[in-house]
Inverse folding.
């Protein structure tokens, strides 16, 4: 079988206030820079900024 090399890669989003992480996918072509999203952090129990890590 041929392997499929797509534009989607799996990334980790790490909280700026605690050690909590989310995993998600992003499209390399549409978002070449690092993602920053506001998501819910269950450790501090509020929405905080999450940044993409390697």
């Amino acid at each position: 079988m041929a392997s499929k090399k797509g534009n989607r890669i799996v990334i980790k989003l790490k909280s700026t206030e605690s050690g909590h992480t989310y995993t998600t996918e992003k499209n390399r072509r549409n978002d070449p820079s690092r993602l920053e999203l506001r998501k819910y952090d269950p450790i501090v129990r509020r929405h905080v900024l999450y940044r993409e890590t390697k």
Q: What stands out?
A: Strands lie at 8-15, 21-27, 36-41, 46-53. The longest strand covers residues 8-15. The chain is about 0% helix and 55% strand.
